[in-house]
C-alpha cells in the first residue's frame, strides 16, 4: 500500500469486523493472535513494542512471534475492494487495492522528477505539469550530448582506476624482491613473429597450458573492432590469451602466490571467468571475475602456497556487432610471489 494519505468513501458503512480495534480503521496487512483477535500488523507491533506484552482486547500474554499473517484470499480481496478517495487529486471511488497504480500511473497531482534528473535537472512538479516542463527542459534537449559525455567520463574513471591499480602492483613488484611481474612483450622478438603463437614451455620458468600470445600489430590488422585492442595498456605490445576460448592454466613445480593480473574480454561484455588456485591438484581458492570488452581491469588476490592458477571462462553477453561465440580473453601481465 502506498504511503500517500487517502480517505475511505463512506467509512461508517464498512463492517466493524474489518476494522482494527487499535487504529479503528480497516485492516492493513492483518495479523491474527493465538487468542483469535485481529489487528493491523503495524498497529499490534507498535503496541507490543511499547511494553504491552499482551493482547489489547483480552490481555492474554502475547509477543511478536505469536502473530500470524492472514493470507485468506477472500478476506484480503474484500479489504482491497474498499473504496477510497485520493488525497492528492480528490479522485473518489478508487478500490484501495488499486490506489498504488492510481498514484504511480494516473494521479495528476503526483510529484514527479524530470526524466533528465540523472543529468542534473533539479525540476520537480505535478504530473499535469510534467509534459509542459519536458518540452522546454534544456537538460532533456541536451541529453544526447550530455549522455555521451557521462559515458565517456565513466570510461575515463574506469581507466584511471585500472592505471592506479596497475601502478600499485608495479610498485609492489619493485619494492618487494619476492614479487615477479610477468609480461609477454618479449615473446614476439624471441619467437621472431608479429602475429600469434603458443607460449613456449617453461617461459619464465612456468608451465603454460592452452596459453597463447598475440602481438599488437596483428590485432591492428585483423581485429581492429575487437576488445583485444583494449588489452595493450601502458605500452605493452603483446598479451597472453586462452586458445580457442577454453580454460587455461599456469603451473609451477614450486609453490607461488597469486598477487594480481590485468585482463580484458575479446568479444563479450561481462565475461565471467572462474579463477581457481590449486595445490597438488586440489582446489584451495576460487573467485569469479567479470571481464569487459571496452576496457581492461586489474584484479588483486592474496592466494599463497599454490602451484597452479586456472582460468575457466563461464559465460558472457556478446558485444553488439561481434559474431564470435568463443570466450576469448587477454592477460596483459600477471604478478606472482614466491
TrEMBL record:
Q: Which residues form the TRAF-type domain?
A: 84-122
Q: Which SUPFAM superfamilies match?
A: RING/U-box, TRAF domain-like
Keywords in alphabetical order: Metal-binding, Zinc, Zinc-finger
Say which species the protein is native to: Adineta ricciae
Tell me the first and last residues of the signal peptide: none
**Keyword Zinc on entry:** yes
Q: Where are the zinc fingers (TRAF-type)?
A: 84-122
> Which residue intervals define the domain RING-type in the entry?
20-59
Q: What is this protein called?
A: RING-type domain-containing protein
